[in-house]
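pasting for ref
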Amino acid sequence: MEVVIVEAMDPALPGIGGGETYSLNLLQYLIKIGVPTVFIGSSTSNSQSTQSSFTFVPVTHKASLSNLGFVLRLMATRSFASVPPGAIVHVQRPEYALPFVLFCRRNPKVITLHGRILHGVRLKQPRVVAWIYRMVESFCLRHSSAVIAVDEGTKGFYEKEYPWLRKRIRVIPIGIDLAKFRVLGRAKSRAKWGFKSSQKIVIYVGRLEIEKDLGFLIESFRMVVRQVPEARLVLVGDGRDRKRLEEMAKDMGLEEVLFIGAQQPDSVPEILNCADVLALCSLFEGSPTTVKEALACGVPVVTTPVGDVARVVRDNINGRIVPKDTEKFSRAIIEILLSEDMASVRRQCVKGATAFGFDQIGERTVDLYKKLLT
């Protein structure tokens, strides 16, 4: 068995997005179990490199590239020529499969759907662009060997959109690196990142994009800080919505909202360990990695009912799942910040995260690969 992973990232310098985390964890798992692996992605270096443990084929050296731009680079660099005969090609967005559908017809192709991608395109792009995207997505999905949805909601969305997909799609949730995301010294982490021991830290980790609905979070936090003056909202990440959100917080007079930008993935466990609660309020999600990572660090979660969070967050045990209402959302955050039994809550968080170690998820993915090769 050989596997080719395709994702618009540099495995040496991954971001904090769910797809990138998934790809890196999958790569590390395949290396661990001895599966020869090729990674086709992007790089900040200037040459194709063969690592001691996997082959890396960069198709671009641009730090930031649109999804369409990445597909065009896959075509222009003839990345498909790097695919060994019989190898499984595993892509992280439907359109990334296009060059391999066209030029690697005999290779099994697996597409992972990290949420309702088509819905996001319809939300952010003009109608004609969304129509063209759907045509490409449909073509790639139809010519795939297997499709993985990271949660039941995503599976249901695509089955409704493409009824012929029902026999080919299955759910395998996202796993996390439990050796990396764990409880660390909280006082030491706070001192390193400049947070006071008396502060109550509400944290968000992820992209600052319109579908994350962070304006809702800032509005909710305004109600939190009125009752908990020592509260701080820390937004970890970057994106196209950052400027608007910064202006929004400024207009509200919320100096307690801190934008610390994108951070190296190795720093994220430390930052999470500074937090008292993680907040998530996206318009849609698949299997949000950050929820599981926060729990593994002993941080309870307040979230709206998106993606597979109901499988992960146990209401009033390791967090709260609340409707999309600023008053209810802020109240849930306040209740956790002022809880007198945080030690017990943190233990429940860690306990709840143990089922989502990537070894279990990786094993299910490899089992799928084996079935495609038989």
